[in-house]
């Protein structure tokens, strides 16, 4: 009975597992009569799982299932934002999937399975649970990328994603095996204690393990030089799948990095910090530079994602509780911003058209002024311009670097942010100062417009009143 004493703390994951089963059965028996039954069940399950996670925030950190699983503020806060961004992805994608006669129920069920993996990953307290969660996240994403079976680009992107993902999983698993060989432990807390007591004796062995683990995590985070798959997958996958891949999985990947490095390997920070420094600088620099040269808008957002992951890594690089809090805050806000930016592309891809080029946004202000204004808020936030929330995310991360005596790295990060603002402002220029290619007015259902508007305005509201979310992010590491 001791095993199940606090099992109610895994309620969000249990709800989501039941939602997967309910969506499968609902689509099987009621799918012909109610075509959107899988969507409705998915939305209900995500709302319940997110609400349960929110109610658990502020409780004591509790380790469950003999050290395999932990319920703490870090996991619960990430679960809330994972559920929120997946929910938005599903709602925005509904019309897109139905219009193209894609298997919508498969999209939602695979998405739920991947979301369950993300929730397991952020709550992992053992190397076994980390790997289980990682594979449960990745395998449905491979299938989702090739979901549009008549698309040659989608099939090619899925194959690239599978091959690169398999390599990353292999590297990570090999790193785990080396870490287990050095410590004899699978539990992250036990690993930390072993490294504290005997880390100096196995310094070379542990460094070797860290190289493989960080390389594998670099693939999952889309950090340079492990970013090769990202532009091709973003471009080749259906836009609704690009939206899903671009948001919540980044939260789970950063959670995995923080669990391993902060909770498991904090005592060997001098061994992994230089590796994170290289990944962070290359990602923030090359991501922004390569994004400037893009005309394909999904490819542009792919390189933008790489640069943003570089800034999240700056927080981890600082190696302090303030730095980890800043990285957590950054990735949560990044997921919201990306859900809005890619969500617009999905919403606009109607009547058989696909928004693929930055020229497709030309004159958006003349076709739908309100939608253009919402997108402008999102892009300004992604560029880090006040008073949007994106400004505070970058400020906090760079401040953590300065406080850790890494002023030169912070200056480089600031320069990269200025470079990155160029391509976001270019998109705004296209929306407001160019003539539209299509002159017909864009009209969308009121429900989608209201959800999208609330979503975008929240980026402005969080920029003006960041205190509540900041406080929760700080408490997650104290």
Description:
It is a single chain. The chain has one domain (2-475). It is mainly α and 478 residues long. The model has no long low-confidence stretch (mean pLDDT 88). The radius of gyration is 21 Å and the shape is globular. The chain has helices at residues 11-30, 37-56, 73-99, 104-122, 127-145, 152-183, 188-198, 203-221, 229-236, 239-246, 248-264, 269-292, 297-318, 321-348, 364-367, 369-383, 389-403, 407-433, 446-464, 467-475; strands spanning 62-64, 69-71. The longest helix is centred in the middle third of the chain and has 32 residues, at 152-183. The chain contains 20 helices and two strands.
Secondary structure elements and their pairing?
Layout: H1 11-30, H2 37-56, E1 62-64, E2 69-71, H3 73-99, H4 104-122, H5 127-145, H6 152-183, H7 188-198, H8 203-221, H9 229-236, H10 239-246, H11 248-264, H12 269-292, H13 297-318, H14 321-348, H15 364-367, H16 369-383, H17 389-403, H18 407-433, H19 446-464, H20 467-475
Antiparallel strand pairs: 1-2
Helix pairs in contact: 1-2, 1-4, 2-3, 2-4, 3-4, 3-11, 3-14, 4-5, 4-11, 5-6, 6-8, 6-9, 7-11, 8-11, 8-12, 9-13, 10-14, 11-13, 11-14, 12-13, 12-18, 13-14, 13-17, 13-18, 14-16, 14-17, 14-19, 14-20, 16-18, 16-19, 17-18, 17-19
Largest sheet: 2 strands, antiparallel
- Hey, roughly how much beta strand do the residues contain? under 5%
| DSSP strand tally | 2
Low-confidence runs: none
Give the overall silhouette: globular
- How large is the count of helical segments? 20
Oligomer: single chain
CA-CA gap between termini: 30 Å
Structural class: mainly alpha
**SSE ordering:** HHEEHHHHHHHHHHHHHHHHHH
Radius of gyration, Cα only, in angstroms?
21 Å
**Largest beta sheet: strand ordering:** 1-2
> What number of domains?
1
């Amino acid at each position: 009975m001791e095993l199940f004493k606090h099992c109610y703390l895994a309620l969000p994951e249990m709800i989501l597992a039941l939602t997967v089963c309910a969506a499968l059965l609902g689509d099987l028996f009621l799918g012909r009569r109610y075509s959107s039954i899988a969507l409705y069940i998915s939305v209900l399950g995500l709302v319940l799982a997110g609400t349960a996670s929110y109610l658990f925030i502020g409780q004591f950190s509790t380790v469950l299932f003999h050290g395999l699983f932990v319920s703490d503020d870090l996991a619960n806060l990430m679960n809330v934002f994972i559920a929120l961004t997946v929910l938005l992805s599903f709602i925005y994608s509904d019309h897109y999937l139905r219009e193209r006669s894609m298997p919508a129920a498969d999209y939602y069920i695979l998405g739920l399975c991947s979301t369950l993996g993300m929730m397991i990953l952020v709550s992992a307290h053992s190397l076994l649970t980390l790997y289980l969660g990682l594979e449960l996240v990745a395998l449905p994403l491979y299938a989702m990328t090739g979901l549009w079976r008549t698309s040659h680009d989608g099939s090619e992107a899925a194959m690239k994603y599978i091959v690169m993902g398999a390599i990353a999983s292999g590297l990570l698993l090999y790193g785990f095996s080396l870490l287990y060989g050095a410590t004899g432990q699978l539990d992250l807390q036990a690993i930390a204690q072993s490294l504290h007591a005997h880390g100096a004796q196995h310094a070379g062995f542990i460094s070797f393990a860290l190289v493989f683990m960080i390389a594998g995590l670099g693939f999952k985070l889309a950090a340079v030089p492990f970013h090769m798959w990202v532009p091709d997958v973003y471009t080749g996958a259906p836009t609704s799948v690009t939206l899903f891949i671009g948001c919540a999985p980044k939260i789970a990947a950063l959670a995995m990095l923080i669990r391993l490095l902060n909770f498991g390997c904090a005592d060997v920070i001098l061994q992994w910090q230089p590796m994170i420094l290289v990944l962070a600088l290359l990602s923030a620099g090359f991501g922004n530079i390569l994004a400037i040269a893009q005309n394909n808008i999904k490819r542009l957002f792919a390189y933008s994602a790489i640069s943003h992951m570089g800034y999240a890594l700056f927080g981890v690089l600082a190696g302090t509780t303030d730095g980890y809090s800043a990285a957590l805050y950054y990735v949560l806000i990044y997921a919201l911003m990306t859900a809005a930016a890619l969500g617009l592309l999905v919403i606009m891809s109607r009547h058989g058209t696909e928004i693929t080029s930055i020229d497709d946004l030309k004159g958006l202000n003349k076709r739908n002024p309100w939608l253009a204004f919402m997108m402008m808020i999102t892009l300004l936030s992604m560029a880090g311009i006040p008073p949007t929330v994106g400004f505070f995310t970058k400020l906090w991360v760079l401040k953590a670097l300065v406080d850790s005596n890494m002023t030169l790295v912070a200056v480089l990060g600031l320069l990269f942010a200025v470079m990155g603002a160029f391509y976001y402002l270019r998109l705004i220029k296209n929306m407001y100062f160019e003539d539209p290619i299509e002159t017909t007015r864009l009209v969308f259902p009121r429900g989608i417009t209201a959800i999208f508007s609330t979503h975008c305005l929240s980026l402005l509201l969080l920029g003006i009143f960041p205190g509540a979310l900041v406080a929760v992010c700080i408490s997650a590491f104290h």
